[in-house]
Design a protein that fits this description.
Layout lengths: L1 H30 L5 H32 L2 H29 L11
Length: 110
């Protein structure tokens, strides 16, 4: 599971960097001329740092994923398959119960 955690960490940190850069772009676009030049410059540097980090993480992903694809990944795939089958079986049971005709009951004293 360590390999799965590594892949999740790489993907999560990459997503965080992308979201942060998006927030910076929105902040600058919405604030327009209300932001001072030094602030815009600082935000640009921060965005550049996030961009470099995202690039580093994209470089790390192939190795992290390659490590995951072995036995640990097969264990995850099997567990996901079992969960899907169980879920499908439960849904089929609910469907059958919902569509089953109501049983006629005999009237009291009949």
């Amino acid at each position: 599971m360590k390999n799965l955690v590594t892949v999740q960490d790489v993907l999560g940190e990459h997503q965080d960097a992308q979201v942060a850069m998006g927030h910076i772009r929105e902040l600058v676009a919405e604030s327009g001329h209300g932001i001072g030049t030094q602030t815009v410059f600082a935000l640009g540097r921060i965005a550049e740092r996030y961009d470099r980090r995202a690039e580093e993480l994209r470089g790390k992903f192939p190795d992290a994923y390659r490590e995951l694809k072995g036995g640990a990944w097969k264990d995850v795939e099997r567990a996901m398959g079992r969960a899907r089958e169980e879920s499908a079986g439960e849904e089929e049971t609910r469907r059958v119960v919902r569509t089953a005709p109501a049983r006629a009951t005999s009237a009291p004293g009949a």
